[in-house]
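The aim of this short unit is practical: by the end, you should be able to scan a pair of folded records and say something sensible about each. We start with the first protein, listed as its amino acid sequence and then its structure tokens.
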Amino acid sequence: QVQLVESGGGLVQAGGSLRLSCAASGSFFRINDMGWYRQAPGKQRELVAAITSGGITNYADSVKGRFTISRDNAKNTVYLQMNSLKAEDTAVYYCNVDLTLNTRWGKSNYAYWGQGTQVTVSS
């Protein structure tokens, strides 16, 4: 059983900062790519930032220079540091983690989603 637990969302004024965390627990062989997505009301879910197991990062153009994704492999945790927040950053943020599991048929990769955490930026 694999579980992703997110924390760190909340209400902040424009220009402020928040730090999101997502910790993976359970039985798995390896954590591969980790990332953060967001979904605003009436909009599709979009990729915000991602980080590979080797530490290579990728960001949406809208957050470059303001958000930083990082991971602590010892804690099975991915972080999203969000600075200079804008009203348009308001959304539910979801972590997404690609895991390699040991199954009866061998190793297989599966993607898991966190439960989502609300980020609201007031202007």
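Turning to the second protein, read its sequence before its tokens, just as you did above.
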Amino acid sequence: VQLQASGGGLVQPGGSLRLSCAASGRTFSSYGWFRQAPGKEREFVAAIRWRGGTNYADGVKGRFTISRDKAENTVYLQMNSLKPEDTAVYYCAADSRTWVISALTLENHYDNWGQGTLVTVSS
């Protein structure tokens, strides 16, 4: 089982990026995106349950959208109105257990992690 994250890059403030997390080998019950900025701890960004339901960190609500493509077994993170403080390495994670959506903010509720993809927001 492997999670492959992609889509990071350099974007100007106010711009957009879409991150992808492709799962190979199986479909998980829940997926999440976390990020780690330089010198900071990793933090929750967004989560989605395969059967529906989403959760977002307060700082990204209204700007980021998490979605899933069942046919492609891929989860996306559409990031709009990006700010310099969104600069971080973004990680996708997945779990086979069924958690309530509010529990998906916790790193230890994920048993599979992909490699990070760097997002840099700068002019």
